[in-house]
Write a structure and sequence with these properties.
The chain is α/β, with parallel strands linked by helices. It is built from nine helices and 23 strands. A hairpin with an 8-residue loop joins strand 22 and strand 23. Helix 1 packs parallel to helix 9 and helix 8 runs parallel beside helix 9.
Length: 432
């Protein structure tokens, strides 16, 4: 943080940071309202520029650090600060781990829930992210590719990254040399990249439809042969059109290779996926009958769970559901694994459909699964295992289960989004 004020509009004030908020910003109080200031720590006293309204308070841009609080360390990465990829590299490691674990305990406290056992924070190593969404844009100097700056469309050109896997980082550097024909306009697009077992799966989104010149780039098998599939989509959530497919990208779930559709959800790190799977499997009873896997994706938990008994997987994305079933069929698991396409937000499984399963695993998106949790709470399922990437919505859904007669027997926090405000959670609920 610089010690000189930058010129510009906006009211300038002096504040002292009291705490770190749930999204990683330092939080001060001004005139009874919170002020959220990035890259600050409790005890910091600094001059900030008030730039915008945020969450009932104000956003502050740090201008000059007047007094430094305890617990600060030198960030690992030269891009920390402007880059929106990390929020907490300036926080000393022990304090960071404590803050990250507290995201879960505070969410449970707010919901009025007690867990019988809370495990220590599990962490993935640096340089392990195998999936990332980066911003890409045509500029006068060629192609800009990197993470966005916070609250901006500006792109940080990555000279280093302590989050991305070496393979993904190297792919970014090589890919820049070939993307110019795909970027006719100067608007910012998104590049979805996943490192698979046999290469990379890439989806370019938010740009013009690739013309013949662009498509011919990857027709040359010598151009980035490690990219097994390159696809295009007009915008996030829209249908995906293959540009080139050299092979089916494959990912391994348990002992099964699965060929996901372009841009399919994948846990961001293999190490984090292993920690989550271990927590789910350890949450199973000693003897397990039929298991229901809700929001199953392409089978992250389905295939490891199938070693214990038959699994019915339910997923709202049709392509992911087909990929799961096809992989099960290839492995000769059709009698042990069945996949059902169903939108669990519009049509959650009702209590009478849930009864008969020994265990239900559910892993919804960040918004949680309020209605599905309510139906689980009204069911007679003996054990429910919830997986979440949002402690707040996990706690909200957990409260419904507890009100329905479950107790939270154990909960495991997993940090696989290093130096960010994201936290994964696995909770085991047992019918009292």
């Amino acid at each position: 943080m610089g010690r000189r004020a930058r010129q510009g509009g906006g009211r300038q004030v002096v504040v002292r940071i009291d705490t770190i908020g749930g999204r990683g910003d330092g939080v001060a109080t001004l005139e009874g309202r919170p002020v959220f200031v990035p890259a600050t720590l409790p005890g910091d006293r600094l001059r900030v520029r008030l730039t915008a309204e945020k969450a009932g308070g104000m956003r502050g841009e740090p201008l000059e650090l007047l007094e430094e609080g305890p617990g600060r360390m030198e960030p690992r990465c030269r891009h920390f600060g402007p880059c929106g990829g990390c929020q907490l590299q300036h926080l000393e490691e022990t304090a960071y781990r404590t803050w990250k674990a507290d995201l879960l305990t505070q969410a449970l406290d707010r919901a009025g829930i007690r867990a019988d056992a809370v495990s220590a924070l599990q962490q993935v190593p640096p340089y392990s992210r195998r999936r990332a969404v980066l911003a890409v844009r045509r500029s006068g100097e060629g192609v800009e590719l990197g993470f966005r700056e916070r609250f901006s469309h500006r792109i940080v050109a990555l000279k280093e990254c302590h989050v991305l896997s070496p393979g993904l980082f190297n792919l970014c550097r090589e890919l820049k040399r070939h993307l110019l024909p795909f970027l006719q306009q100067k608007s910012v697009g998104d590049l979805f990249m996943s490192e698979m077992e046999n290469g990379f799966d890439v989806v370019l989104s938010g740009t013009d439809l690739p013309d013949l010149q662009a498509r011919e780039i990857f027709a040359d098998t010598d151009v980035l042969p490690e990219i097994k599939r390159f696809s295009w989509s007009p915008s996030i959530g829209e249908p995906v059109e293959p540009v080139v497919q050299r092979a089916e990208p494959e990912v391994r779930f348990g002992e099964t290779l699965v060929s996901p559709p372009p841009g399919a959800f994948l846990q961001p790190t293999a190490e984090g996926e292993a920690l989550l799977c271990r927590a789910v499997l350890e949450g199973l009873p000693r003897e397990t009958g039929p298991v229901l896997d809700l929001f199953s994706g392409c089978g992250t938990f389905t295939f490891p769970l199938s070693r214990s008994g038959p699994v019915r997987a339910v997923e709202g994305d049709l392509a992911a559901c087909k990929a799961l079933q096809n992989a099960a069929n290839r492995r000769g698991l059709a009698g042990r694994i069945t996949a059902e396409h169903r939108d669990l937000f519009r049509q959650p499984l009702r209590p009478e459909e849930l009864d008969g399963f020994d265990v239900v695993v559910f892993d919804p998106p960040r918004s949680g699964a309020r209605e599905q949790a309510a139906h689980l709470a009204a069911s007679s399922v003996p054990r429910v295992i919830g997986v979440s990437c949002n402690p707040s919505t996990f706690a909200r859904d957990a409260a419904l289960l507890v009100e329905g007669g479950y107790r939270l027997a154990s909960v495991v926090p997993v940090d696989q989004f290093l130096w960010s405000a994201h936290l994964e959670v696995v909770g085991v609920f047992v019918r009292a």
